[in-house]
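Dear colleagues,

As part of the handover before I leave the project, I'm documenting each prediction I ran so the next person doesn't have to rerun anything. This entry is a single chain, and its sequence is reproduced below.
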Amino acid sequence: MTRVDFYIVDGAARHDVALCRIVEKACTRGHAVFVACKDADAVSAFNDLLWRFSDTSFVPHRISSEEDDGSAVVIGTRTDQLLEPDVLVNLAPDVPGNVSSFKRVVESAGFDDATREAARKRYRFYQERGFPLQAHKIGT
């Protein structure tokens, strides 16, 4: 069954860097990572963030609409286009319909009232369906 991990990080800036580090770690461990975003603007923002979050590392990635270059990390809005789902980093407000096809899901517990409320709804979704859930507090 798909394992779901919620990450608790205080502050928007620390939150964004923590998610980039999680993506980087999964990538270096050989996982194929899909970062699901709510819309094209969010895809562009996370793409930019992966380019600049660290001066000392590089996460090979591409946007899903770009030609497949073999990057281990893909950023997009449609999780149903993947041939081999592995790790999903869900930055979208809702749970994707094909979430069970992933081996692992990374969820944010949010960083402000609105994102925390959306995270609570996703948590309840997973909990009601019996997904194994874990929570991790980062940097507090």
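The longest helix spans residues 12-28. Residues 3-138 form a domain with the Rossmann fold fold (CATH 3.40.50.10110).

All the best with the project,
I.
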